[in-house]
UniProtKB/TrEMBL annotation:
<protein>
    <recommendedName>
        <fullName>histidine kinase</fullName>
    </recommendedName>
</protein>
<feature type="domain" description="Histidine kinase">
    <location>
        <begin position="41"/>
        <end position="258"/>
    </location>
</feature>
Length: 267
């Protein structure tokens, strides 16, 4: 906050100072509102599966246990909802870890082609099952990144591409050198696409274009928020292009070498 206040005293005259202070209060208020909204969202997201678990367990205890078929169906729901809670909590933990340790990335020189290829391999069985074709165009590039975190980025983008692309579609992943000293990774699908008005919001925590569809595919609404955080903590950026019913293309641009921050926060 001190930092924000400093320019006030640089300005000529005291009235400017008052204006800046008010500006900062607005910013604080905005942060406060965002925090309140976030907690409300988390509570809501947690309550939905817990309500289901509680309700179905109660019904079983009240006598439904006697019927084996019903019991099985209810237990399956309880299991699915617990899985969902588990995913939600681990995504939330990931997000807060990344936020807390923005500057504590575990950098090393990573064979990016190998990292992306091996990640894609883990999706192959699922792709075959869903009749999706995955195409790779990966150049031989090494980069200084936090390999585990960048793998998480690829996993989240591929998970979405698989979830939002109907059977017989295809997913293409590319890795190329980009401008001097940068690399570009793209994940492109032939799926349902994202409406224009939603494009700027998909990186917000818990924002989904279609809540029911995201739930159905096991989504938590946190995947892209995590992606954005990881990419930005590497001093990179993310772009998205999409056309409804045609498909979506995400592009990640990362510096090839670790960037030293010069504002003093990076140490
Ligand atoms: P979710 O867990 O719901 O997938 P994300 O943060 O990963 O959450 O994505 C946010 C929303 O962006 C999704 O709910 C979905 O509406 C949209 N989205 C993300 N990736 C794609 C994609 N490849 N194709 C279509 N829509 C997508």
């Amino acid at each position: 906050l001190d930092c924000h206040l400093a320019p006030i005293y640089d300005a000529k005259g005291q009235i400017n100072g008052v204006v800046s202070v008010l500006h900062d209060i607005t910013k604080l208020k905005h942060l406060e509102n965002m925090r309140t909204e976030f907690i409300a969202n988390v509570s809501h997201e947690l309550r939905t599966p817990i309500t289901a678990v509680k309700g179905f367990a109660e019904t079983l205890l009240d006598g439904a246990l006697k019927n084996e078929e019903t019991s099985r169906a209810f237990l399956q729901i309880i299991y699915n909802e617990s899985e969902r809670l588990h995913r939600l909590i681990s995504d939330l933990l990931d997000l807060s870890k990344i936020e807390l340790n923005q500057n504590l990335l575990n950098y090393s020189t990573v064979d990016m082609r190998e990292l992306i290829h091996s990640t894609i391999e883990t999706f192959k069985p699922q792709a075959v099952k869903k009749q999706l074709n995955i195409v790779e165009e990966l150049d031989d590039i090494h980069a200084e990144v936090d390999g585990d975190r960048i793998r998480q980025v690829i996993i989240n983008l591929l998970t979405n591409a698989m979830a939002y692309t109907p059977a017989n579609g295809s997913i293409k992943v590319t890795l190329k050198a980009f401008k001097p000293e940068q690399i570009k990774i793209t994940v492109e699908d032939t799926g349902i696409g994202i409406p224009k008005k939603s494009l700027s919001r998909i990186f917000e925590r818990f924002y989904r274009v279609d809540k029911a569809r995201s739930r159905e595919s096991g989504g938590t609404g946190l995947g892209l928020a995590i992606v954005k955080h990881i990419v930005e903590s590497h001093e990179g950026y993310i772009q998205v292009e999409s056309e409804v019913q045609k498909g979506t293309k995400f592009a990640i641009i990362l510096p090839k070498y670790k960037k030293e921050k010069i504002d003093g926060n990076g140490i």
